[in-house]
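User: Before I run my own analysis I want an independent prediction to cross-check against. Here's the chain; please return only the structure tokens and, at the end, one sentence I can use as a sanity check.
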Amino acid sequence: MCSAAVDVIVVRSAVVTEATYDDPFRPMNRFIELFEDATQVKGFNRSFLEPMYIELAHERIEAGLESDIIYDPKVIELVLEEYPNLGAAALEKDHVTASVHDDLPIAMAIFENRIGIGIHTEAMGTPVAWIDTDDSDAIAWGEQLFERYRAEATQLY
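Assistant: Structure tokens:
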């Protein structure tokens, strides 16, 4: 399933942002660029958001960003442990839905008119690449995948 996702996105006019030795956060910065302009986001998060981006995520949620995110249980535990006030405040917002799932297939975000996939190594949570596109077939595929995992996930609060 994962390779099919990457095939759909790569073939369809995707932007591929790879980490480099001199700029290891390039993929994360591309995600943040899309995130900053979004009014809604939904997807999977298999890794912890780097501490330098936590405040931005908090600001966007406080500004009303509609969020529907499915986390790996270890990620949500870490967020609530490391940032108890910010994490709890975010989860109490009406426009934030958070769920957990033990077996997420990929890291994925769907914005209004764009889908992206984070490519990670097993040893590291920071993405080594971010692949995104505005292709409607890729977005539809991502929506279906998201809904499938959301139906299986356990909603928090």
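Sanity check: The chain has a mean pLDDT of 86.
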